[in-house]
């Protein structure tokens, strides 16, 4: 038995006296009688959050969620039930409810075998105990002080610190038995600045699958404070953004949200199996300009979007989505892979035991090209240089996507000039990707704050890209 | 009915136990909420059941105060050991949070005492098979509507009911059962290269009040078909008519700016606007917490404070912020019974229906969908992706997509020309369509 499975046993099963034979018993309820596949997902999640506001530690809270979700699949049908009690009787009840999608009862037997992941992308630690409570409070105070000392126009600072310790184990009728211990920490800083009658905001943050020490190392947390203030002060000077279609240069890192919206969601296996994506049936076709290679990589050590194994027990992968502009592959979970006759790419993810797994992104980014970033900016006569974004959204079927800039500048005659107010950029995924004409040599990943929502489920993700130029994109400003 | 009363009594006892435990562990005051829900969510696609989910969720949250210091904890486990551990975790946090002059329970004399039955609990006694059949009927109506409906994301039935109980150490402990049901459908249409998706839904406390499955399916199909062949339009200024369901979003953005938490942080473009005109004179926005079967009905807010029927806006003037007791203390004011949000909001309507509004607009953009999060509550700057229809001479000309609309909420609100009599009724915040004098459209 691997040490991860050992930890999962002790955390999830032992407290209520459940054992391996009980898992076999539950899976036995779930095989035969027309069921193609079934799994049980055990989870215990502890979350802690702290909020500093107005210079005081205003809130501290703790949350415990645990339970098991049981899924049975027959053809394209999925039955699902869950229980927040990790006892045999409610779990067997849930198994029977899940398998009720077929009329007959379970009659088979299953023996699972523990899988030891080949590699470890993060340590199986509990980040909540990686700093003392006093040290967490001290960290928040230092971040607050750092933000306030940057500029006297800083009027409000809100700092939040979140840590999660997530232990999961999944057992499936295909013999899978896999476990993972997933630490996740994050710190966010939000500031309001005031100059005369004008008020603006700025925010920054970051995190990783690591202990809280990650935020102290290299003064990262203080860096987020300085960055939030810098952004807010830039916005104090911002003029109206232009309106219309124009060249847009996106900075490196977080603007990779472009790829998440314009490409990533449209390549998730479920939409493509059902034929409802603008990318459906287009494998092997050119869907982006030749300078674009886009991957979804769940194997980056410590990254927010990384997973040693996904929520179905499949090891995560580095999946090439688009290579030199040609569509190569989709993101798959087991269910959609089975129905499409391919293998899972390790992208089966769920928000919790109380949610069904779906094909989801991990860390999605574009590989570097050859241009110097300065050269890319210099190539634009009149356009926008956008370096920071709020959220985005996509309509999978039409391919339309939006993402909202929170820090952007005019480019005039090849030079970055005045900052402009936040504006929404809108385009069509496949069309916008064809409009990418220059890709920089400065690939960067985001700082570790991404949250992706799909069908009401949130999961942590990462994005990234080098500086790149899109020849035509619609910029939703108010200026002429 | 007896069963639900018994369950409610058990949850009320649980809240009393939590408050007692908090006291035993040294907290000066405490408050707690417990909820327990069960339901069914299923989706039928291309005539076959796709997912059938049995949901069963419970949770408790507790906040303790040691003087002016606060700690919170919550859990999905309602066992006695978990309750003790959760209270202990909350108390532990209170050792590290700061003294905060404004923290604490809402004042005792504000607790709700009149607790009428608002008729919110109507469980839907249906079998899984019956629910599947309804969803099948709904999806079939959509797919049969037009040959250009070529694919489907399916039709869904969601039905949930449960209990929520809140209590605090003023002795207030109260709860009520409620239910919520919905039917929805999303289909894909294709015409040449153009592929579009749209949906429709109906939602209600009582399943008898839902639109028929056929009506929901047909509406989903009609909306999808109407988008086929959408094109972009030229960049420029024009009046914009926000269809009622998207006008609700504008109203929510306004509510976000008069929330106490945005105001005391100075993170609102409506700071210091109380008793000032924020809309044209004809606008009245009214909160009605006691509507029978209302989706947002409730006799007390999330601090136990009695909710009240009140004008948020009348004669276009901002009459009340939306405050909980913390924000109220921060601002030297009194809570407005809006901890946790508003309880049913209604907006006065004019006499014009959709056609009348289109005629009044003459030439402009009818917006039926908005995308993205481009609303800045601090500055009021507004820039979002939009789809809809271009209108000339009061008549729809063609569908429009991949454009943005931008402006500033403060100016948009003052530039409101008309509110339609076509109110959106599927949400707790309700309004008719909004005609706004002009916005910047970015397109080709």
Low-confidence stretches of chain A: none
Greatest interface: A-B, 77 and 75 residues
Give me the number of helical elements of chain B: 9
Ends apart, CA distance between termini of chain B: 60 Å
Overall geometry of chain B: globular
Rg estimate of chain A, integer Å: 24 Å
Distance between the termini of chain A: 66 Å
Main sheet overview of chain A: 7 strands, mixed
Helical content of chain A, roughly? 10-25%
Number of strand elements of chain B: 16
Sheet-strand content of chain A, in percent, reads 35-45%
Q: Give the mean pLDDT of chain B.
A: 96
Kindly name the structural category of chain A.
Answer: alpha+beta
Topology, pairings included?
The complex is a heterodimer of chains A (480) and B (444).
Chain A: H1 3-13, H2 20-29, E1 37-53, E2 56-74, E3 77-83, H3 88-99, E4 113-114, H4 133-150, E5 154-172, E6 176-195, E7 198-208, H5 213-216, H6 220-236, E8 243-250, H7 257-264, H8 269-274, E9 294-297, E10 318-323, E11 326-327, H9 334-340, E12 348-349, E13 358-359, E14 363-366, H10 373-378, E15 382-394, E16 400-412, E17 415-420, E18 424-428, H11 429-434, E19 436-439, E20 444-445, E21 451-454, E22 457-460, E23 462-465, E24 468-476
Parallel strand pairs in A: 4-6, 8-15, 14-23
Antiparallel strand pairs in A: 1-2, 1-5, 2-3, 5-6, 6-7, 8-24, 9-10, 9-14, 10-11, 12-13, 15-16, 16-17, 16-18, 18-24, 19-24, 20-23, 21-22
Chain B: H1 2-24, E1 29-45, E2 48-66, E3 69-75, H2 80-94, H3 128-144, E4 149-168, E5 173-191, E6 194-204, H4 213-227, E7 236-242, H5 244-257, H6 260-264, E8 285-287, E9 310-314, E10 317-318, H7 325-331, E11 345-347, H8 354-361, E12 364-371, E13 381-392, E14 395-408, H9 409-414, E15 416-419, E16 434-442
Parallel strand pairs in B: 7-12
Antiparallel strand pairs in B: 1-2, 1-4, 2-3, 4-5, 5-6, 7-16, 8-9, 8-11, 9-10, 12-13, 13-14, 14-16, 15-16
Helix pairs in contact in B: 3-4
